[in-house]
Amino acid sequence: MDDKHINTSILSKQILEDQKKSRIDHMTYLPGMEQIDSDIMDKILAATAAYDYDKCTAHDVEIALAHEGRLTPYDFGALLSPAARPYLEEMAQAAQRETRKHFGNEILLFTPIYIANYCENYCIYCNFNRYSKIKRAKLNADEIDQEMAAIAATGLREILILTGESRHASDVEYIGMACQIARKYFKVIGIEVYPLNSDEYAYLHKCGADYVTVFQETYNPDKYETLHLDGHKRIFPYRVNAQERALMGGMRGVGFAALLGLDDFRKDAFATGMHAYYMQRKYPAAEIAFSCPRLRPTINNEKINPMDVHEAELLQIVTAYRLFMPFASITISTRENARVRDNLLKICATKISADSKTGVGEHSAQVKDKGDGQFEIDDNRTFDQIYQAILDNGLQPVLNDYIYV
Amino acid sequence: MSTENNAAKDTLVIGGHEFSSRFILGSGKYSYDLIKAAVDNAGAQIVTMSLRRANDDTQTNILDYIPEGVTLLPNTSGSRNAEEAIRIARLSREISGSNFVKIEVIPDTKYLLPDNHETVKAIKTLAAEGFICMPYMYPDLNAAREMAAAGAACIMPLAAPIGSNHGLATKDFIQILIDEIDLPIIVDAGIGKPSQACAAMEMGAAAVMANTALATAGDIPAMAGAFKKAIQAGREAYLAGMGAERVKGASASSPLTGYLR
Lengths: 405, 261
Hints:
Distance between the termini of chain B: 39 Å
Oligomer: heterodimer
Low-confidence stretches of chain A: none
Shape of chain B: globular
Number of helices of chain B: 9
Radius of gyration of chain B: 20 Å
Largest interface: A-B, 24 and 24 residues
Helix content of chain A: 25-40%
CATH topology of chain B: TIM Barrel
CATH class of chain B: Alpha Beta
Low-confidence stretches of chain B: 1-6
CATH topology of chain A: TIM Barrel
Shape of chain A: globular
Order of helices and strands of chain A: HHHHHEHEHEHEHHHEHEHEHEHE
CATH superfamily of chain A: Aldolase class I
Number of domains of chain B: 1
């Protein structure tokens, strides 16, 4: 395979050696993984294979911009293409109009809480991977309560519960317990954990969770295979179908993302949008959300970078998401610095985390046994600082926007 | 979203049947002896027929006036609920031999507005019996989704109250159906002029159905020809890809992207 998109910053001698070893088939489900009757993955892969961004022209981009509010998949592809680069300001203006039309000036605030960082996968770019030499931790019920109380004291009312991907260390009952504790303090609960079966999603929904985010990382199965060498996460189709199983389990909303910088970002962003598009058509009641994470350095590899996804490319991707799906929530990560985040809030993002920590037990002084973080964040502002920055930009911070039913 | 974008062989596909014409002609409200000329001038391959008129007397039968090779589309006009629509559809199939049925459930004699809920119920039964169901409906996205799930072969939203010749009064809602439903969207009812039919086709409608616009024209066959050209022009414009109608030009400065490093 002639791969023009290898991010050498994530490679090490050890990883290169490990990539040569034989591995299980990444397209075959493992025992216990629910297989649903769905054609969504095939549609995403077919659309992405057919997407040839070098063929898109300036005229295609202009047509796409003229289709404000109702872009076709072809238009979306044009906006992600190199031909759209000279139109970045126009895309930003159009994205801002669409965002204000659908969301007014409201910006939702939330914060992530990492309750455990044990992981059984071997994702070569991630600091949580099973071979990574980091301090592992798992909060018990009291510690989760202390952490959540500390977060709620800031005023936040939406929380995103995260774990490393270990069914053994952090089983579904454990995550459910965290959701039940969260219900005491928060109005909106999202989860970002390993992919589950639909009955498990139904269980977590009963425990209070309403939103499920799963990063696909890359939608290129060949590339995916070389990045996820071991563990359940290696099984590509089980991950792609996670959002659909979550909706089948009764969740209100699902989030989509490619980790930008792992592969050809135009193809991955296109696939992410098409995934959301096909899901929305099949499940019109679902809330749709995008995240737009770029690769970040970790404590064990400070040279990791997002390859060719610079700030302008990130803006191109996020505005293309907005114009393709004007109604979707777009979260802007703490992987980005304050300048980028504040500007994206002005243009098209609708949700931002505040007081973010990617380690375990970092919100509360009472938790003694803390675990290392997943990646280094680039915006260390407190809740109050972010809240004020939103106001200073003429926007309105909102702490919760949904009722759990 | 249009499902058939192949300009080389741009056909309308309904229930597995292909048509090159995108003009569905109604046969009501005008004399039988004009039907043939209207159909010929329209180039129509599908003509609707009301069972109410199929066997009304011993003197004339509408079936004798419909040219050969034209697909008959019996409608269920006269039905006020799903049950009646199902009965009429079954009778129509016996008489016409056509599996096509235009489901019209109209519990309102003043405005003749269709009942979407009863229509969904009728589709469920008739699709299971092998009918090619073409439901006339009030353009409502949720109802259209239910009709698609029930087995409809296309969706036929009204543009304006039937017989009004008011044109695309429900334009925004029809556009939503075109964008969201994976079935041909055939604009039915209310289209009064060729320019309105053309506009519907430019939006991405798969076909247009018209009746009153012709029946009330000075020269029915001539108007049929005018509609034919308008529908073709609209379709060609849609396939060609409409030029950009810009709301706002780019500004010289970069107020939103100035932050980039």
